[in-house]
Amino acid sequence: MPGTVNVAVIYYSSTGTIARIADAMATAATEAGAHVRLRKVRELAPQAAIDSNPAWAANADATKDLPEAEPDDMVWADAVIFGSPTRYGNVSAQLKQFIDTLGGLWAEGRLADKVYSGFTASSTAHGGQESTLLALYNTVHHFGGILVTPGYTDPSKFVDGNPYGTSHVSGQGDLPVGDQTLQATKVQAERVVRVTRALKEGGLTGGA
């Protein structure tokens, strides 16, 4: 039997696109044999801002019972898949805030030798998807993590075209997550689990 792999899917979503991808990522990782924790990061926006956007308010209500990410989730995980919408070509403030709480674990070397990957969404096709993932992956280098991206390792990746990680164009919220994005999610989650398992069985990953 293959060894146990712990995967934490940690994300921020305002209007729900990233939440939908995160849920699909967690499901795909589970189906690939991993133990999975799905966690949202803490919201920083004021309630008035959330209430001003019906989609944002609806997503906040739909995920109100989902546990918030804690540093312990990072310690537990053999692999971490981060998700964030693009914010001016960078990760959201909410996800960055969570990452900034991990300094103690980083100083102790407890974030190193884990597998990391990421996913994102933007309003337009050139709205910063690649730069957001690359910015996120800069953090992985500082962690001493092992970056596992989907690359062009599956024929479907030549269709969605993003080797950096699953990405979705949401328009103004009128372009829901569809089959192409869900297939990209499946490819990425399965690869993360497969590579993490191989590294862990070789004694190379730094789980809890």
TrEMBL record:
Coiled coil: none annotated. Residues 7-200 form the Flavodoxin-like domain. One of its GO terms (molecular function) is NAD(P)H dehydrogenase (quinone) activity. It comes from the Bacteria. Its EC number is 1.6.5.2. Keywords: Oxidoreductase. GO terms for cellular component: membrane. It is an enzyme of class 1 (oxidoreductase). InterPro entries: Flavodoxin/NO_synth, Flavoprotein-like_sf, Flavoprotein_WrbA-like, FMN_Rdtase-like_dom. It holds the Pfam family FMN_red. Belongs to the WrbA family. This is NAD(P)H:quinone oxidoreductase. It comes from Streptomyces odorifer.
